[in-house]
């Protein structure tokens, strides 16, 4: 008993500490209970939210319109064979949920989602139709359930719709206004090789042909220019790294083995810089200063053209049915002395007729020409060409009708029984681009299919086909555009589009398979997003098509260029210690120079490493001349700029003593009267002249009023001889 009393007395003396511990434990228990209750409520709330979200998306048969996915550049058609149901994305506001919660929600909603999705998919009619809206509905955006194949409904870009009787913003459209539309597939689907720049090794070129055949190509339009092994008088025009006759024969044999129609393109009017740039042919120029076009009236011209055609035909004549004789962009026409007596249009028609008749009568081939020089011709002016040539209409912009309106199609159809068309997969949206903008090329190709379907009935023989051009230089003197391996993803997308007549998820599966892409099915089936991935650099990062390493190199160079430009902008523009003024005056803070140059070594090492890897990567597909030219144009300028800014920084840091301010005015500004002291005599003369001018009466002074409100003040212009005869 005594022992118990002793313990109780000790506890009583520590009653404050004990009571505090009990209070803390009570508070902790209450907090844990409240937290568990809230967690359960949140889970239930998310459960309900996900049920509603999935049910709504399944009923609409499309992703949530408020999500970023609805704004992508390419949207695919639900309900078309090969299309899976779109995966319902986790809403942004709930991306922080735990894995166990997510697994629980997925399991709970799987059955509901599958049943709703199946019902929605069965409800969709698998027919693509094009809605013909009446004038009062023009410009309206498509109803949200209309499935746009590609992009927005702007201009002439084709719109593929499900069979809903709805127009823009949900307005009803009568059945008479809905026209069922089958996919238009051109008979011939050619790819174009422009070999006047970055000519690939022949074994690689044949690999590209094999890939193109798998993707749906039926032929190839090949433009040798100076890469052809000309002989005799024309031997001087061939490039140092021209293909051999044996290599050309390998190409011809490969096309025959693959069943590809081979069409050589021989320049015979414009784009003859590779010949006319030389001294021995300079006298044949249409304009003495410009080597682009040949004088069609000169007595030597046809002899030169015939010789060029004969040499190319000798290596191709047994395997071809067509010859393309160019004739586009003849910027200088009829300027030479022998052509002074004729009109431009008649001179053009006469020369084209002479060349076409030679090809037809001597080599027995059908003749194709580019169409652009004929677009402003009247039908009567084109009559001599009817039945003699087939125009190939090229437009690389998204809106084809803007550059080739309907009335031009009417004129062509009046003269020519048939025609060709041409889109582009690279080399069409800027002479300095390193990677092709795939979205623009796809829009152009889709639009061409729509135009061809609309205009084909005007021609007796319909359209022969379409060529996907891939320009390597804008002309003989331009720098390299996108390399052929870099353009292959764009070529693949466009080829599959013209092969199928559309581009959807089925086509995308063909794309990833043909380009030898690896990855999980989910990654491969993820819809293309050409807005966030305009070059398909992310999609193709795990693909192993021929030349994939060059494609990835170009993307790395593009990213490095942006980083170097950002660094140089920071040094030269954003910061105030290495601008042009500071460098010119050699007047700045060495401490600040060190500070702004901290990232220089990292950028310099990246560029040097890039040049070394570029040499190794490019050498697998190109010769030393192409490797050196591409590196000099794309990487070496970055190296030069980094070296220059480094030298400037070292020069600025070398100085140890600076003169006091203000610095002397720049000598070069004196010609503008800046930095010169004005004498008192000159100042007085100027003031007196102003005083005299102010005293001149103005009879219209009472009519002049100050501009009111936002009125624009008129600019006063003095008479030409004002300073010679001042008013008195």
UniProtKB/TrEMBL annotation:
InterPro entries: GH, Glyco_hydro_20_cat, HEXDC-like. Residues 238-378 form the Glycoside hydrolase family 20 catalytic domain. It is an enzyme of class 3 (hydrolase). One of its GO terms (molecular function) is beta-N-acetylhexosaminidase activity. This is beta-N-acetylhexosaminidase. The keyword Methyltransferase does not apply. Belongs to the glycosyl hydrolase 20 family. Signal peptide: none annotated. The keyword Plastid does not apply. GO terms for biological process: carbohydrate metabolic process. Pfam families: Glyco_hydro_20 (PF00728). Keywords: Hydrolase. Residues 688-710 are annotated as: Disordered. Its EC number is 3.2.1.52. It comes from the Eukaryota. It catalyses: Hydrolysis of terminal non-reducing N-acetyl-D-hexosamine residues in N-acetyl-beta-D-hexosaminides. It comes from Tigriopus californicus.
